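Need Miniconductance mechanosensitive channel's 3D structure for a figure. Predict it.
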Amino acid sequence: MQVMQLVREITDWTNQFPWLEMLSSLGILLFTAYASNFVAKKIVIQGIRKVLSKLPAARNSVLVNYHVIQRFANVVPALIILNGIDSVPHLTTKIVYLLQMLAQAWIFFSITRTISELLNVFHALYQRKPTAHNRPIKGYLQLVKLMLFIICALMILGTFLKKDVFNLLAGFGAMATVLMLVFQNTILSLVASVQISSYDMIRIGDWIEMPSLNADGDVIDMSLHTITVQNFDKTITTIPTNKLITDTFKNWRIVRAENVRRIKRSIYIDQSSVRFMTPDELNRLKQFLLLHLYLDKKESEISEFNQNLVDQSEYNQRRLTNLGTFRAYVEFYLKQNQHIAQKELLIVRQMQPTSTGLPLEIYAFTNTAIWVEYEAIQSDIFDHLIAILPEFQLKIYQAPTLP
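Structure prediction for Miniconductance mechanosensitive channel:
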């Protein structure tokens, strides 16, 4: 009886101060919302996480790393405020309506974030598939997220304006031109993403080269708006997705797939050192194992040609040149080199003479695409060729130095 009497006295006293009754009731409601949020996140969610972490299934590890349940738990305090704000006495109708609208807006936003996190989980599970590396879906998921948040914003706006979402969408039809301008980059990026995925133009891990944007490295991320490239100097270049459709770029994927890489480099010969070879020089070069059969064949061919000449003068006769012999030696040398892909195209050709010498170009493919090994093979080949040039009485062109 004494307790009931005390309660009546407290009630009678608080009735004399309406603002105190309102604040106490509001405090109780906020405390209840906070307590429910604490119980949901710290007790329920943590318990679910511990259970999932102990399960042997592989997919559960993905759920543990994401905050799907935690995002959805934010709905609980908003629901308590939404349904309990009416019980707070002495609040004006406008304040009650405003708080209910804010709670409802928070519910919409929390549900949208939950769906967005579910999409992240789906993307993580998709990444485990073998085909995910060749067909990334990150850009499409970003587009879905963008549409979700736009719908969420319209629902929140419709809640405050007391209008249906579909009526708001109909009203936005007149703003289509403005929206096209605002989301121009997003639309262009979406079209580019579809084309890139359809034609398999780029995959994560591809080595691409795009000089116009100073990009030269491996693709490490593909999203709706950007392609991220880690350059070989460890810098990061971000390329707008639509630039890959409008601008030119080079993809080295097939080089890595075929495990071959092209050598295309020239040795610039001093043209004044090119001349006919004497018989003694030919006999000396026959000691080269690679040239013995070639020289015998060419001498027989030249001898037969010269015998059929009407004018047997020295100037009309064919003779071997040191440059032609060296060109044949380079070709034989490359065909014997175990680091050269013999099934690929191999050419040793003389290019158009220039003011800096006569280019002798080597066009071949190494049997490895690894950058370090490729450079070592290429350097070894040209080291040998430059060192053996004097044996053919040839010189490399070098610009004369000023006195």
